[in-house]
Amino acid sequence: MFIFSLASVVVFAHRRLRRSCLLLQRSTCLSVFSFSCFLALHASSTSACDHIPAGKSFWIRLLDPVASYSSKPGATIRAILIQSPECSDGPVFPAGLELEGEVIAVHKVGLGIKHETASLEVQFDRLVTTNGDALPLAAQVVEIDNARETVRHGVIHGINATNSPQGRITSRLIHLPTYNPYTDWGLLIYRSIFTKLPEPEIYIPPGTDLRLQLNLSLDVSDQPELPRASFQMDEYERGDVEMLLSKSSERTSTRSGKDADLVNILFVGSRDQVQQAFTASGWLPSDHNSTHAILKQFEAVLTFSNYPTMPISKQLLNGDPQTLTWQKSFDSYEKREHVRLWIEPSEVDGQEAWLGAYTRETSATFSVKYHNFIHHIDRNVDEGVLMLVRDLSLAGCVDSVRQLPRPDFPQLTFNSTGDEMHTDGVLNVVHLKDCERPAVEYSSRHPLVPVRPGSRFTRYIRTQVLLYKSDVVRGNLIYGGYDLTRIAIRTFHHHNEDYSDAGNRPLSPVSPDTLFPSLSISNAAVAR
Fold it and tell me: Looking at the predicted structure, is the pLDDT value of residue 398 above 80?
């Protein structure tokens, strides 16, 4: 009877894990299945943590696309767990488990007659455990990585297309609301022919990372306890790393000599391994500064879109400019993650060493002081570094992750534009290995489902409807004053960002030691 029951569990686990293979390599799926069998035979029936409290958050990566224009309420959405919720200061589940949810509510813009903005509500209610059981949960979306969309109370809200810079420029009416707002025929002709608004519909392709939050506590008393990974170095590696750091600054600097970012990560591996790892993880190199790059940045600002290979400003470490730069973005000019890398003359464990400075940009504003657009960064630097390590580990490009405490490292500093940076001073040392670019790639430019009206004429009508509605409501001095006040508040808002849930976010590194077994989950949305 026990053998029969165990076989049933294994078969069920195999069926569920097969569905996750859209973004997993064949060998990975076999490894996951083998590990499920191992757990069914050998895992303990108890866990050190009985309940994960409500409010804890975790990260997933979508397997299925979702779009405000074509998704329907009740549609099933699947995802892969890429960073587990934590309990007792450690992850509860291995990465690679499948989650299922559904679309709760959808409001599309359509022709813009009823709605000016799109919205989506997606909730996840099942997690397939390592033994193949469906574990009920209640989790809502609280963040989309690097997205222009905002999330409030579990509802994803799209942008207001007419609130873009171009929409504001073409709305120069100064009278009170009226249904006949057009008094400038030149402006009317211009906007009828040349105005191009950003796409207002929401599209979230496979490979997009979402942060979920538990609405209710989750009973995990019957889940097998995961072994705790060790991130300690041996004495030889520690000696190499400490010798390297003794010859380097802890901070990068601008070309004018002003302190900039923190040196917070060290890669060990060849140049080819570095390039393979970032490419396989969906990260892209940056363009050089040029007139063409400036024009592309200007276009991204005007259209609320991203520039996936946007130039990264030059910084110096020990007087030398960065050797390599890599970045990851989604659909927003304001938000991206990037890292600058410097190859070091010293080696670690007989391999090339690359010191890095990682930052995560969360907003962009025009600075009167610097006469340019500047990006503000997430002050929780360590969380962002772990997101980078997670991406590389999930792509199968990391051999090991070690950590070096730096107790004398300042925990609160400021970058060159005055943004706070909080850190515990730990240096993450990532040993790379050879890996290949994932075979499956998705792009927002080539969606898998309909994401907007297919007819150009329909989209033109939608643009004119949205512009007219915007003029009626916003083309007046009263709204203009409100809009200026809102922009001013937003400019200073980054100094008071809400970090009330910081203690509920996962903080354990995702490495090969914490993937059971070693997975290779591609970040499919590499071409945005």
Answer: yes
**What DSSP string runs through 86-128?**
BSSSSBSS-TT-EEEEEEEEEE--TTSSS-SS-EEEEEEEEEE
pLDDT one-digit tens code per residue, 81-133: 999 998 877 888 988 899 999 999 999 999 988 999 999 999 999 999 888 88
pTM: 0.81
For residue 77, give the H/E element and its range: strand 76-83
From 412, 396, 363, 401, select the one nearest 521 (Cα to Cα). Answer: 396
| Phi (first) and psi of residue 337, to 5 degrees | -115, 140
pLDDT of residue 57: 94
Structure-token pair, residue 15: 């069926």
Q: How far apart are CA 49 and CA 228, in angstroms?
A: 13
The per-residue DSSP string of 324-381 comes to EEEEEE-S-SS-EEEEEEEEEEEEETTEEEEEEEEEEEEEEEEETTTTEEEEEE-SBH
Domains and CATH numbers, the chain: 46-159+201-219 (2.40.128.260), 161-200+447-493 (no CATH), 235-436 (no CATH)
Residue 214 tokens read as 């538990």
Render the burial of 222-237: b for 16+ CB within 10 Å, e for the rest.
ebbbbeebebebeeeb
Q: Do 107 and 115 form a contact (C-beta atoms < 8 A)?
A: yes
| Helix H or strand E encompassing 484 | helix 477-493
Closest CA to 97 of 54, 36, 140: 36
